[in-house]
Amino acid sequence: MTSDAPGDRLTPRPVGYLAMLAALPICGLGLMWALSSMVRHRGIGVVPLLLTVAVAAAAVYCARMLKRGVHATYAYVYIVDGRVRPVHFNQVQAFSVRPDSGAPTLWIDLTDGSSLPTPVTEDPEAALGKVRVTPAEMTTLTTELNRRRLLPYHS
Questions:
Q1: What is d(CA 15, CA 68) in angstroms, rounded to the nearest whole number?
Q2: Do 74 and 154 meet the contact criterion of CB atoms below 8 Å apart?
Q3: Tens-of-pLDDT digits for all 155 residues of the chain?
Q4: Which partner from 25, 26, 29, 84 sits 20 to 30 angstroms from 139, CA to CA?
Q5: Across-strand partners of 105?
Q6: Global confidence as pTM
Q7: Are 104 and 136 in contact (CB under 8 A)?
Q8: Beta carbons of 77 and 120 less than 8 angstroms apart
Q9: CA 90 centroid distance within chain
Q10: How many whole angstroms separate alpha carbon 135 and alpha carbon 37?
């Protein structure tokens, strides 16, 4: 696993993964350049400050995009869609595939009757940040999640 999201990554990399991976070091270089510019000129001007904030925001955005997907441990499933949302397997009633904006999407149905969408979709035209899977990969994913849900570790 290459991200710092907890557990095993169960989904493929999100759409635009290589672009975000390439943009991250560029953002780092831009951030170093902006900070060194402030040090060289011994002051914080408006333009270097705005540039530093913009490049730092872009770096955070890229880093979050790289982690998107569904991760799992023996006790939790983690929905990573810009933030990490842990769900204990005791709270999960089922994993289902339902349409969301016209495309089949993985949903987590909870025991309290609510549902959580995931960034995992079968949409071949998926937008940046969505995790695109084939129907076979979706079946494998739901099978693995159900297998982990039924493990005796967290019952």
A1: 9
A2: yes
A3: 344 566 788 888 888 888 888 888 888 888 888 778 777 777 777 777 788 888 888 888 888 888 888 988 888 999 988 788 999 999 999 999 998 878 899 999 999 999 999 999 998 887 877 888 999 999 999 999 998 888 876 55
A4: 84
A5: 98, 121
A6: 0.75
A7: no
A8: no
A9: 22
A10: 50
CB-count burial class (<10 Å; 0-12, 13-18, 19+) for 18 = exposed
Yes or no: say if 155 and 92 are a contact pair by the CB < 8 Å rule: no
CA 39, chain centre distance (Å): 35
Looking at residue 14, its amino acid is P
Q: Residue 88, SS3?
A: strand
Q: Hey, what are 48's tokens?
A: 């270097």
Write out the H or E segment, with its range, that includes residue 16.
none
Walk across the sheet containing 69-72 and list its strands.
8-9, 69-72, 76-80, 84-88
- For tokens 């089949």, the residue is 104
SS3 90: helix
* Stretch (H or E) spanning 69: strand 69-72
Residues 131 and 121 sit within 8 Å (Cβ to Cβ): yes
